[in-house]
Amino acid sequence: xxxxxxxxxxxxxxxxxxxxxxxxxxxxxxxxxxxxxxxxxxxxxxxxxxxxxxxxxxxxxxxxxxxxxxxxxxxxxxxxxxxxxxxxxxxxxxxxxxxxxxxxxxx
Length: 107
Ligand code: HEC
Fold this sequence. Notes:
Elements: H1 4-27, H2 34-39, H3 42-45, H4 64-75, H5 84-88, H6 93-105
Heme C binds at residues 40-41, 43-45, 57, 59, 67, 70-71, 81-84, 87, 99.
């Protein structure tokens, strides 16, 4: 007959494994890729930057420099916008560059 402690131990093992993995994930800084960051733009600019709406600019195939300048201008409130100024404030220069690399490479 199995004792309650024997029945529980595999579960405890699993729990501690999951816990240690999540602790690790929390302490190791995630390196966000251009794709990961670029995917946050998809809800408005379309999947992989391909707009599905004539009023929304596509980001796919955009000139790298153009995206960087636009994001920095929005972030610095130098370019008028409805939402992009708020969105751009959430990204650092290296992140904007990674996003620009990602979208500029999409054909
Ligand atoms: C909530 C919707 C929304 C999200 C999310 C969003 N955008 Fe935008 N974006 C807009 C709108 C709307 C415009 C037009 C300018 C404005 O009114 O803000 C725009 C304009 C732009 C432009 C200017 C394009 C041009 O042709 O001049 C760039 C570049 C841009 N967005 C990049 C991004 C990037 C990069 C992300 C993700 C980090 C992103 N946007 C996320 C709504 C969004």
